[in-house]
Amino acid sequence: MQTATETVTPAGQPNAARKPGRALHLREATSALHAQVDAAMMAGEPMKDREHYAQFLIVQYRFHQLTRHYFRDPILNGWLPGLAERERLAALEQDCRDLGLTPEHYLNLPLATPRHAAGRATALGWLYVTEGSNLGAAFLYKAAQALGLDADFGARHLAPHADGRALHWKTFVAQLDAAPVGDQYESLVVEGAQAAFLRVIALAQGMAQG
């Protein structure tokens, strides 16, 4: 049975102490998709006014619903301590309500709870994208403040963590690099991140066209 602290590699050896570099590899493997996400998001002019920002919120809310079960998975929380507290779905729901949106109108079925090693490897890729979006939200938060939004109204999900964005991200990266994923599943981590970026692109393009 797989535990939160050990996964067996093809050679039969535990991969509990994964060498650093997984996050860097993900960054390199998804750089083109990341650029496409940025372009798709900016095409919708999310910070033009509150109406455009509301459409941006819908995209964010629908995307973050997808990873709901990942943030609550006990084994993933063992690999990534504090993962459950990182989830921003509740903040997004309240941000939507602040802007007069009804979250129930924008429900999105979450991805299935991972039940095996392959599923959790894929989940790590999705979580990399989800958490990375918070690191890059600094300029969005500043722009949201120009619209009269902040950590108490409308832009809760963009607000920095009390520890600061950089330290919060550095902690996550260290956990991600150390997560005990078997070597045979490493490609699934990349595939998960790629799938997450592609989903964001699709949602953002829908916002720009809508």
UniProtKB/TrEMBL annotation:
Q: Which residues cross the membrane?
A: none
Show the Pfam families listed in the entry.
Answer: Heme_oxygenase
Instruction: Name a single GO biological process.
Output: heme oxidation
Q: Which InterPro entries match?
A: Haem_Oase-like (IPR016053), Haem_Oase-like_multi-hlx (IPR016084)
At the top level, the lineage of the source is: Bacteria
Start-end of Polar residues biased regions: 1-12
Stretch list, region Disordered: 1-22
Q: Which SUPFAM superfamilies match?
A: Heme oxygenase-like
Q: Name one molecular function that GO assigns to this entry.
A: heme oxygenase (decyclizing) activity
Q: Which CDD domains match?
A: HemeO-bac
User: What name appears for this protein in its UniProt entry?
Assistant: Heme oxygenase HemO, associated with heme uptake
What is the organism field in this record? Orrella dioscoreae
Lineage of the source organism? Bacteria, Pseudomonadati, Pseudomonadota, Betaproteobacteria, Burkholderiales
